[in-house]
Hints:
Blueprint (H helix, E strand, L loop, with lengths): L1 H20 L16 E2 L2 E3 L2 E3 L3 E12 L11 E10 L4 E9 L6 E16 L29 E18 L2 E15 L3 H6 L14 H7 L10 E14 L10 E11 L10 E15 L3 E15 L40 E18 L2 E18 L4 E2 L7 E2 L6 H4 L5 E12 L3 E10 L10 E6 L4
Antiparallel strand pairs: 1-4, 2-4, 3-4, 3-20, 4-5, 5-6, 6-7, 7-8, 8-9, 9-10, 10-11, 11-12, 12-13, 13-14, 14-15, 15-18, 16-17, 18-19, 19-20
Amino acid sequence: MKKIILTTFTSVSLILTLYLSSCTLHAQDTTRHIRQGWTFGVLPSVAYDADLGLQYGALTNIYYFGDGSTYPEYLHSFYAEAAYTTKNFGIFRTSYDSKHLIPNHRLSVDITYLPDQMCDFYGFNGYQSEYNAAYANQDDPAYISRAYYKYRRDLFRFSADIQGTIHKPLYWNAGIGLLYFGVGSVDVDRLNSYTKKEENKLPDTVSLFDYYVRDGYISPAESNGGFHPYLHGGVTYDTRDRQQNPTRGIHTDAFLSYYAGLGNMSDYNNLKFNFNWRHYISLYSDRLIFAYRVGTQLTLAGASPFYLNTYLNQLYMQRVIYEGLGGANSVRGILRNRILAPGVAFANVELRTRVASLKVGKNMFYLGLVPFLDAGMVVQPYRSVSHNPHIGAPITDDQTNIDYQRLYDPHLGGGCGLKVAMNDNFVLSVDWATAFDQQDNSKFSNFYIKMGYMF
Length: 455
């Protein structure tokens, strides 16, 4: 708890630091609080995630607003970040986004490397795979290892996406990219080399991931990862009043993504379909906004390796990582990647309030509270999985038990968020969430300190 409180105050100070360090190379219209020219700052990258731990590093986000006529929309955005977390998750990312480099088109380019020594793995099909928190709790007699529900996953991503206008507010989208997943068992020896206290070292034991490989639920090819170039294309309908923190409008997209498998993954070519609907309704000016999102990701054809099913496809990148269902970016309060299946659906509901506003110099700040409810579910399951490989109790389509009957039950999480925003482009988000079922997370308090709204 002390870490969470410390990180919260540290993150708030970053917003203030950004204000002090940002530079504007042209005059500003102080009456309308419009930003013009360039704004930039180099800052510590500090955040907290219940799944990933305390984050530390550095980042910079450079915006160009031109003459301010499009504010709060920027003309060009450059972003770079290098950080690591206390739970062995790394972030190395650069990105560029603009609606003006190519006239009448939006171009987004992203290059990211995400090493993860302790990536979450809780089995397939959500509730159909039992989660036992005692296996990862050193103080419990049933303890196996803190790495029991973990595996190693290193992700490299390159993407280049473009959007053009069919007829406003309808747009077309196309993109190319490459994903590389380096997958394997947790490197216990490496992690233990960082630990001085003997009692905190990880035991050399079999993990849930190892059991899935042993029992054939994860194929030998999947268990090592591979390269996956992809193409995607689709359409977007966008009536939002602004791109950053909209107060009204609809933003929806539907698209197809074709993934090829190279080398040992040549049998894992697949076609996925994604649909996302985001709706923002102003209940009282910009001070009370009802916002919701519903979406789905389905595998239409071919075979998709398990690690690709932990990744939610996007038409253009706005975040560091888009995990599968569970965690800070999809279903808050639920364990990261808890809902793993070839096809999933999700929903998020938020009531976004602004409780106080403050002008500091030429910058506007506001404080907001956001109660929320999140949900996710399996809609396209794996045909056969093991209920608990540690004990060995396979479940197939012709078997029935309480967990199999719950296969299509929604996983629910909810809580409340605190938002501290500057000029609508920088929003510090501190979310508290809890899972409604202990099979999704035994912890009551799960905190996420991030930048921006979730959608």
